[in-house]
Amino acid sequence: MTHHRETRAVRMPVPEPPRGTPVAVPLYQSAIFGFADPESLAGAMNGPEGDFAYSGYANPTVRALEDALTGLEGGAATLATSSGMAATSAVLHSRLRAGDHVVAQRALYGGTFAALRDLTDSWGVEVTYVGGDDPAELRNALRPETRLLWLETIANPTGFVADLPALAAEATAAGVTTVVDNTFATPLLCRPLEHGADIVVHSATKYLGGHHDVVGGLAVFADPDEYRRTWVRAIGLGVVADPFAAWLLLRGLKTLPLRVTRQCASAALLAERLAGHPAVAAVHYPGLPGHGSHQRARRVLDGGYGGTVAFDLAVPGAAHDFLKRLELVLNAGSLGGTETVAMHPATTSHRHLDAESLRAAGVGREQVRVALGIEHPEDLWADVEQALRAG
Ligand SMILES: *Cc1c(COP(=O)(O)O)cnc(C)c1O
């Protein structure tokens, strides 16, 4: 039977998959998938394994991204989410109950700090902050109700590197799950699961996407059951990744090694030159031998020390004027993309912290953070240098 034009306009045939395999992962921009019979549809609704039924649960493009990260981090399974904070929240909400206890490192991403404070206010989850470099301090902080240890590979903006192997070993011995936010290191510079962590979270918005054009997150799990529990929670929270975002992240991933190598090299060059500049009082980059985390960074990182550099200007109150004089480097937040960006943490990313907390986080009023892109490093240095000189 020939259908009416109205029906044919809606129900155009979807082409069969081509015989050749597409070189790029196709974008499956479809919210639902149809089946020949109700039993197949019912089966597909059952879990993240098996067929795809609804993209709010799982999607082939998203799955390709998840599988890529599982391989890069050396995990058992990965959950892609709508943002880095979505990955963090899915893990926190899946793992914690009212009255549980968390140990987190003091130099912590502001959004994670806020999420933990919210869990304290809403659910009575207690949080103890530790330095992140002393296993004995962690041992003393652990309680019978401790469920999670939360660390970061390279902390923002000071470049603090936690002692992942020693702290993860301490947590594992106590039956505590170790989560590492690996956003700043990427799986190229560090694979926390190899150092004993159980879960790795990423803001894919940063290096993995790498072009300042997509927001996304990932959580990689060593244990498939932990993955499944978190997947169920992520569906409940409604934070699974969108197929188009996953497609952009897959595209970004292809050039991750090229970009990160360049960004690390440019950051190292900038850090060295800043350290010798009279207008700069201090440089915070774990690649510098004088940085407090340098020895740990050498053990935990491999192939570079990250693509962000923070530094303190020698003249008080000069940070905003320095940022205004930049011509090539953009005044923008975030990091890890192709364009170099700079910001003043005390009035942006860390604006909610009081003077005491700013000091604890190692963030001074005179501090500027530069997140390197992939422009020519000499052009970037020339811009930074002219902005310093004019001061
Ligand atoms: C940006 C960031 C996040 C949050 O990621 P979003 O994608 O912005 O939600 C988490 N951790 C770190 C270290 C980050 O830099």
From TrEMBL:
InterPro entries linked: Cys/Met-Metab_PyrdxlP-dep_enz (IPR000277), Cys_met_metab_PP (IPR054542), PyrdxlP-dep_Trfase (IPR015424), PyrdxlP-dep_Trfase_major (IPR015421), PyrdxlP-dep_Trfase_small (IPR015422)
Pfam family name, one: Cys_Met_Meta_PP
Keyword check for Nucleotidyltransferase: no
Chain positions found as N6-(pyridoxal phosphate)lysine: K206
EC nos: 4.4.1.2
One BP annotation, GO: transsulfuration
Example GO molecular function: pyridoxal phosphate binding
PANTHER family in the record: CYSTATHIONINE GAMMA-LYASE-RELATED, TRANS-SULFURATION ENZYME FAMILY MEMBER
Protein name in UniProt: homocysteine desulfhydrase
Organism, as annotated: Prauserella shujinwangii
